[in-house]
Amino acid sequence: MTDQQTPTVVVDNLHVDYKIFASGKAAKDRRSLLSRQRGVRVVHALKGVSFTAYEGESIGVIGHNGSGKSTLMRAVAGLQQPVKGAVYASSRPSLLGVNAALLSDLTGEKNVILGGLALGMTPEEVEERYDSIVEFSGIREFMDLPMQAYSSGMAARLRFSIAISRNHQILLVDEALAVGDKEFREKSEQRIRDLREQAGTVFLVSHSMRSIKETCTRVIWIDHGTLKMDGDPEDVIREYKKST
Ligand SMILES: Nc1ncnc2c1ncn2[C@@H]1O[C@H](COP(=O)(O)OP(=O)(O)OP(=O)(O)O)[C@@H](O)[C@H]1O
User: Which positions ≥6 away from 84 have C-beta within 8 Å?
Assistant: First the structure.
């Protein structure tokens, strides 16, 4: 790393908690059920995470289930309020998750238009890019069907295609590649590399070490809400694998 690199995201001692109300499902009788329902539990999902991301980096985020990766992405995107610490970003990060909202009773075609507008494109830009979005998704023959008729993989492909049709200075991709087939995955990985080359910063949350190795220049490992390791993909993945 040199002094000339431009920071795009600074995560400074980030703490995120979730407050949850116990359902009482584990309670054995009515009395304990009532007392359990009153209880509020606090989950410390992130416990003081700090790092700086730079222009042109593609950062893989790895860690075991429930370690805090999605929480970190949501906090960087500004969707999750920290209890302590802060996130500073040079422009508004776009979070692309498997749960990103498209409207299931509208056709694929309408969702491409709505999705494009939601990403800040003008109607003319949406029209201009419509064909390349549909082409990238590889599901042209389903575009006139409502999205509820799509498989989860098809919906994810369309969502990803809409999101990456515009350039993002900071793009957060949360497991969106896991659902596609090999051809789509390779195309998507190439698109992520292109975005990075256009001086963007890309974060990729994935359980696929292969995808991470193919696309990332740096890897951060989140473990029980803390930053366990941050560095070269080969080194971090090697240590991570030893822990599983
Ligand atoms: N909305 C929520 N309400 C309460 N607790 C939550 C919520 N979302 C996440 N958590 C908890 O916060 C912790 C971190 O979850 P998070 O989803 O960030 O992990 P993750 O590393 O993305 O997991 P995975 O690899 O399984 O997707 C977990 O203990 C989880 O149970």
Answer: 13, 14, 15, 48
